[in-house]
Queue: 2 jobs
Job 1
Amino acid sequence: MLKVGLLGAGRIAGVHATAITNNPGSTLVAVSDINAEAAAKLAAQYGAEARSTEAILNDPAIDAVLIATSTDTHSDLIERATDAGKAVLCEKPVDLSLARAQACQKVVANNGKPVMIGFNRRFDPNFAALKTALDKGEIGKAELLSITSFDPAPPPVTYIKVSGGLFRDMMIHDFDMANFLMGSAPVTVSAVGTSIVDPAIGGAGDVDTAVVTLTYADGRIAVIKNSRRAVYGYDQRVELLGSEGLLQAQNMLENTVVKSTTAGVTGAKPTYFFLERYMPAYSAEWAAFVAAVNAGTALPVTLDDGVAALAMAEAATQSAKSGLPVALASILG
Amino acid sequence: MLKVGLLGAGRIAGVHATAITNNPGSTLVAVSDINAEAAAKLAAQYGAEARSTEAILNDPAIDAVLIATSTDTHSDLIERATDAGKAVLCEKPVDLSLARAQACQKVVANNGKPVMIGFNRRFDPNFAALKTALDKGEIGKAELLSITSFDPAPPPVTYIKVSGGLFRDMMIHDFDMANFLMGSAPVTVSAVGTSIVDPAIGGAGDVDTAVVTLTYADGRIAVIKNSRRAVYGYDQRVELLGSEGLLQAQNMLENTVVKSTTAGVTGAKPTYFFLERYMPAYSAEWAAFVAAVNAGTALPVTLDDGVAALAMAEAATQSAKSGLPVALASILG
Amino acid sequence: MLKVGLLGAGRIAGVHATAITNNPGSTLVAVSDINAEAAAKLAAQYGAEARSTEAILNDPAIDAVLIATSTDTHSDLIERATDAGKAVLCEKPVDLSLARAQACQKVVANNGKPVMIGFNRRFDPNFAALKTALDKGEIGKAELLSITSFDPAPPPVTYIKVSGGLFRDMMIHDFDMANFLMGSAPVTVSAVGTSIVDPAIGGAGDVDTAVVTLTYADGRIAVIKNSRRAVYGYDQRVELLGSEGLLQAQNMLENTVVKSTTAGVTGAKPTYFFLERYMPAYSAEWAAFVAAVNAGTALPVTLDDGVAALAMAEAATQSAKSGLPVALASILG
Amino acid sequence: MLKVGLLGAGRIAGVHATAITNNPGSTLVAVSDINAEAAAKLAAQYGAEARSTEAILNDPAIDAVLIATSTDTHSDLIERATDAGKAVLCEKPVDLSLARAQACQKVVANNGKPVMIGFNRRFDPNFAALKTALDKGEIGKAELLSITSFDPAPPPVTYIKVSGGLFRDMMIHDFDMANFLMGSAPVTVSAVGTSIVDPAIGGAGDVDTAVVTLTYADGRIAVIKNSRRAVYGYDQRVELLGSEGLLQAQNMLENTVVKSTTAGVTGAKPTYFFLERYMPAYSAEWAAFVAAVNAGTALPVTLDDGVAALAMAEAATQSAKSGLPVALASILG
């Protein structure tokens, strides 16, 4: 039974608390948060204790910590937790600064503790099934990947300003999905971005709509499309053309009811946002973490994966500004 | 080159005129109609002559006639045309009277000329593909058949009154589809009907919504659902459960555009009515007739098929009235 | 907080234990089963006590019991539990004997305690959404209902023999769905059944494939199709034609991946069986029970609903044997 | 009645001959081809005469010519035909050389005759319905366009060598579709291409898989994906995200049959290639040409549209080679 400390008590921490509790191989022992009240409330709900982060990291009875705090604390907490001997599952992104993430990577390489980054979409039943079919050779060799990833509505501009920008905050999931499916990093990253949804987002120095093209050493190509606004719901699709066919992972819908009237044939919208769409993915992610930590086997997503995606976000940010393709090697220095 | 006389110049005759003209193996030579003006107009449009029915049947240069006149003339014209040595394609139904149709069957059995009944749905690309998959054993042995067949809007009550009733006029297509797919006639026919769409239809002695259950000697079951009104368009679907799977032939849609908005995900309606849905079927039907007549091979749908469907319509009409199942054998005497 | 005793510790009891525990308004206090080991194991898993049924019913601290024992004990336990002052949620069917269920109905009418029957499908998000759309008038007035309900594989013949037969054991869910959607009981019930899936099922006096047609006083019609075997998975669909459109609740699929190859365009199968398909429905069902009991409001499904569905199963059983329609009034006597 | 001369007697000329003949407002008078036998055969099939191109252009009784010859003859024939006073419908592309096409554009501007370029996809019922919905404001303001356009199999390398390359030969249709839907030309064109399908195509100096990103002055973005090989058939889809929703035009399928077995749920493939998919589009294109010429109104697609798409192909060709974005203005000089 894996004993777990949860760092953070916000909305996504609540999602993880449920997954930890429902998993038969793990128990939620303690919760910390800079907002003590939030920590107390979440802990009470799941029969855990509210403690300080310090107390959690120093408790030898705690085997693992789940880091669900704000992004600017991730690198520090990963370093402290692994130095304290804990296995770590940390929400994405590792950091907004590639350099800081790379420094963290070195610390972890030294202490040798397992760190998993929360790219939950790899565990979505649909994307996972697509990956399985690809690995089984069901469409031959991959050639052209397309990822569509639209949020239902943009966050407040106050959030945009501290988010690190669309490429680091939102598309980072899609960069990891590309790495997951393509199995190797791209050579070049070309981005175009615009603030057509809301000029205020442009005013804050960010884009709200973007297309990134990735090229690979062996000739493969990937395209990622992001928009901060798809009024019909969370649009999360992947499409991969291979030498022997096409794989598509389509949206999950709110229900399966279809209505035919004089106005046409109408079905339900996609599930609204990430909590609705990815709840099964969060559970499966946690189950994979527990299984790997308990068995001492390799984690399915690593800190290296987190750094790799961050490097692509950095390249895309630069490309969108310069209007020129960026070689990923130039970023990784 | 098959030289063809067309008896009838109404709407469905126009459909056939197109199919005859577009087929590289047949030519439309002459058209007749009780409305001379209609015959003249249709003939002119397709480069044919307007003639009397008499003249068409007596012309030794005409190889085949297509009968697209009113139902009450079908049996007579089939007998006259086959006695005159023509190959015949006659619109369904053979007759509203089973006895008259059976008498016609005997005449044709004597003169030995090929007569095909226009059950065009057998040639619909979707139903034909379903039948092919079934015959290839793709779902094992058939067990339970469902046919959904809804018209977009009811015809005028004046038409209802002379139509022979829903079972002979509308469901007869579905009886033939059941025979086509199941490959044998049922043992019992149980019908329920109601005039829930329009009480005036009930007032005219007919039903507008009906369900018929068919049982087969080997334990198979079929269900046919008819409604005179599906406001979203012509709903024509078939579904067949077998020992190793399910086959479904779904509706054809007006186009493939899908719109996702806050109101849901909306696609196009089914093609509106039989002319839109079954135009390819009419062409394929005619091509099959031409091919068989030219090759001297068996016709894919026969007068016997027409009589078999009519007997089922007769049984359903009786069952809907009595509320009791009817043995098909009792109808066929 | 509703304190709950669970009677039964089999597979479906486990499903309910999860729903009781996950619901923030209820706690699982005790579990009983004729197999003491099973009760102990299930109780331990959810932090409850294993007790005798007697002890549970006599414990004044227990507010409600969930009856998930074998069918032949349902009526007795409903009577004992309500006499002991408990609110009851009992798995379907109430009883295999209509007379016994009606006697139970009288007892409960006398003691006045709330009893809900576990027709979980009413709480399926898809069927519930269809019902909501219907109630909002989105397709006008209902005219023709079709329910397709196929199991993936037949149960062992040993089970068939004690099941009460397909109509009482399997189609009873669909009878309740018809009552739920149509809002009133039918006038006549006509059934045909066959043992085409497995002759051994026929040898046991039951059918494995059946079609039931229901007629309503106002002219509406419903058709229910059941098969014990759909090799592609659990096929659970509802379709309702109304004066202004059609509503369809389609199957839920294992995932949304679609593969296009030279062999065609292939998607996932329906979720395998009732546990996969109806898990959200079991949770929603329990939530509705807790909410109604806590608020003292009417339960959304009642013992009367259980008896009504059972009467239809009785009528269908008779109809399938006699080959004749059965008036529901003659059953309810 | 528009009297038409057809220049060219190859496969696509045959398609046009059918459309010309079936249209009630036009007649095919004469056919020419460098292969006299082919011209004779096609003419005979449609009741027309085989003549020399010279004779067709000099015949004052001929109102319009349809140019379906090899690409290298298009500009010359457009000039000669318009100088001879004919209305012209010319197959795409105008020319492989942008300069030559622009020279032709000037000649036509001088003689003032109507020239339509055969971008038939604008007349596809699906894309046309998408455009109509967009123009009606059904998804608000367009923001992000995606075009997927995959051929089922690559042409022979001998063809590739004279084709002008993927961007001029294949993607030119998609450039026109972008112009059609976006209503204005892009500012920049960025292309990546690879010969991952067949290295021999790369050996011939061309690519077989490509992604092009277009940016617009008002912040909109478009992405076009091309592959010379989608083994499952002709994949022709358009997707447009707007401020109030998403429009998608999906593939047309060979039929609507769906088969559910233990292997999954399988439907038909997309229609195989352009003749199957776009036959209705060719007819609608011709009908629009006839209507506009007869009415003397503006043609729905013009020679300017042909030059605009060609300029984008030129820009994409340069961008794919240099790896840098190309400003369209730099191409149009």
Job 2
Amino acid sequence: MPPAQGAGVGFLAVDSGGSGLRVVVGEVGRPVSVPLASGESVRTGPRGIDAGHFMEQLVPMVRALADEAGCAEWGTAVIGATGLATLGDGLREELPGALAREFGVRTVALVADAVSAYVGALGIRPGAVVAAGTGLIAIGTDLTGWRRADGWGHLLGDCGGGAWIGRAGLEAALRAYDGRDGGSGPLLACAEEQFGPLPGLPGKLYPRPDRPAVLASFAPRVAQCAPDDPVAAGILRAAARHMAESAAAVCPTTGEPRVALTGGLFRMGDPLLVPVREELAKRLPHAQLVAAAGDPLDGAVRIARDLAAGVLTLPADGVMVHVVGVAGRGDHF
Amino acid sequence: MPPAQGAGVGFLAVDSGGSGLRVVVGEVGRPVSVPLASGESVRTGPRGIDAGHFMEQLVPMVRALADEAGCAEWGTAVIGATGLATLGDGLREELPGALAREFGVRTVALVADAVSAYVGALGIRPGAVVAAGTGLIAIGTDLTGWRRADGWGHLLGDCGGGAWIGRAGLEAALRAYDGRDGGSGPLLACAEEQFGPLPGLPGKLYPRPDRPAVLASFAPRVAQCAPDDPVAAGILRAAARHMAESAAAVCPTTGEPRVALTGGLFRMGDPLLVPVREELAKRLPHAQLVAAAGDPLDGAVRIARDLAAGVLTLPADGVMVHVVGVAGRGDHF
């Protein structure tokens, strides 16, 4: 079957993260489809993110969207994926071929989730984005290359992220419990409300596989206490300082870069946002803080549109942005 | 067989920790035996520390020591054990009976390893002891009760311990790698020497079950860099401040308490000891810093001697110090 008319500029855009795949399809010059979500995160195996499991989730979602769109050929696919840098070997090797066989895709871009978050927030402009949820990473570009800072995980960094804030809050609760300096009575009360008597807390945290998420679950309590508790406010101030340090490490030092914040952590609102704005203004006076325009899936869509239209100006470095051409069904090699 | 003469005042003393059991036997008024070590840590199961596995290790060691000592009846046993407060249910229920059946023991004291460390370091005197290895706990007494501070593990506290120092050192290395504030070039060089290229570090740390030990393995590098690197020196200064905070939370506020440091972390020497001495002098000017007289096994021996001689003045609270009388073979109930 020959490719349907216009299929050369049709595209798939995918965001693959901890809560599963989200997918849209579209064509250049037209609005994208509604997004579909799998709700199940892609398994990782010995070769990292499991390309087979990825395709198992993707294929039925794309078929459903294709029926809606009246189109079954997609020339371009952009996948923004968590863990791509460290766990992406399987995806990089297997996904382009699988997408070509299944959908006739001829150009595939695998981008780190930090890159799709960046483009979703700022578009294709120089600047820096701080992406914060349970973890924290900063990414920046001058449009000739990418820089990243932090994102090392809860034991080595992710300074200022959700697990970092929650951990600091629990430490302050336990300091109050012990009668050590630096304790917070309000955080102690919150910790007992959330976790029960504190001597039981280690037993509720250490055996769990999702320790960073358990720590991050306490972060909203820190924000809740901050207006009246100087210890909680100090934790958020320190988090804000760490975010500004990471943003400063990746932001272009010349020109008029933009800076944006993205990710679930910023739903905390003013107790975190006010100090973050102040620390960014101190640390990056030449940068303009703007609201994030969209999320990582919006970023994948933008990259896909530009790639499909042949106008992508995003720096590709093989790791953060990995673009490959493949022999699709429509090509007669 | 009736008890051998003098067996009523014979004792066993045991230190049970991460590297296994260490055991000595003795009699009041005489030097103790050489210590024997099992080299294998006692398993934990659904009921905490496994009393059966504990006895499996203990029995042959005590028999070997008894042959040397020419004595097979022990009226008193003192067990200092890591994790007793949280994982000691099985030991508390099964060990006294097992020791009575096997050795004719009539009085058993189960003491937290922090208590045996305290008594080993300071004897039975009011004061505070900071015990630091991979983790960190402070314990203090006015001889009417016990206070403890920290010891919450590497995600919730253990502030200033080996994992804490190593983690802070690796964070400083990664800050330098990223170009963030607070980085240390010398620590970056040490981290690359120890762990290879740093993008691989998360993969070498997070999948391991012994993450705190991996973090603590970097602590000696921080001490090594401290004389010439202000970032490394700052980490050890902060560790010293945390130790003084924990000591202050447990030390009697009146009288002339003594303070001692014990545990493997202090083998770091001056780069850590100099700031610790300064911070303790600031925080606890009424206390006298003394050298630890002995280790946790020495503490278990001291408690056993006093208990066997009927002169133990250590506060018993059922948790930190749990003393029980049992019906041994020598009693005809």
